[in-house]
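_Per-residue structure_
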Amino acid sequence: MNSATPSTKPPPLIFEDVTIAYSNDHLPVIANFSLIVEAGSFWAIVGPSGCGKSSLLHATAGYIRPVSGSICLGRHPILEPSLQVGFVSQHYALFPWLTLKENIVFGLRSQNLSEQIVQKSLEHLLEVIDLKSKREYYPEELSGGMQQRVALARSMAPNPPVLLLDEPFSALDTINRINMRELLLRLWSENQTTVLFVTHDLEEALLLADKLLILNTSRESMITMDIPFPRPRHLELTHSEAFQNLLKTSSAHFGAELNL
């Protein structure tokens, strides 16, 4: 387990009457959105293009401010980016002037941790992402799959209570996508992190998450569903009758606009 893992369970993530709009839009992208995300839960967010999935993540990360309502981590409102909320997108966003290992420990360096703790965390994450031999490489020397592993490790290194992922595997080939799913689940289970995972792949959502949030372009419409399958889950699950039935039920809402 990551040496910087907090000893207490993280607080819930609370959305209360959140409305998100941009100055050049006549309508909000998210309107009157309320949800309590229990600590340590794994939510997948799906919905048609333009329904506000990415905007919701950006507001949760503190990158943008809702025009009304609040997003709180426990009792503390999220008003700006911080190490309390990790963010991974489909664009790897690594610092090109830093080596692989320097990218991973970037957030840890601002936490006033001892060098021993920083190095212990680094060695653990290098082992988990299987890139120990490439620790001195720069991002341009790594494949896309390797860069995304580093991006995930960098986001998880400070052990944020919340991890946001915005279609993080969409640019990867099938093998790398499967490997990244397994890596994400391992880090999630180790750190008890609350995860919000945006994807256009409904099958991926049902395979990874415990809860499904379906957003609608009507702005004020959403559906939440439990995903009942026990863990660990394997790809063979997707061929089961129970999985296919849940896939049909959930896809009935926006099936034409999701990857099925």
Q: What stands out?
A: The longest strand covers residues 13-20. The chain has seven helices and ten strands. The longest helix spans residues 174-191.
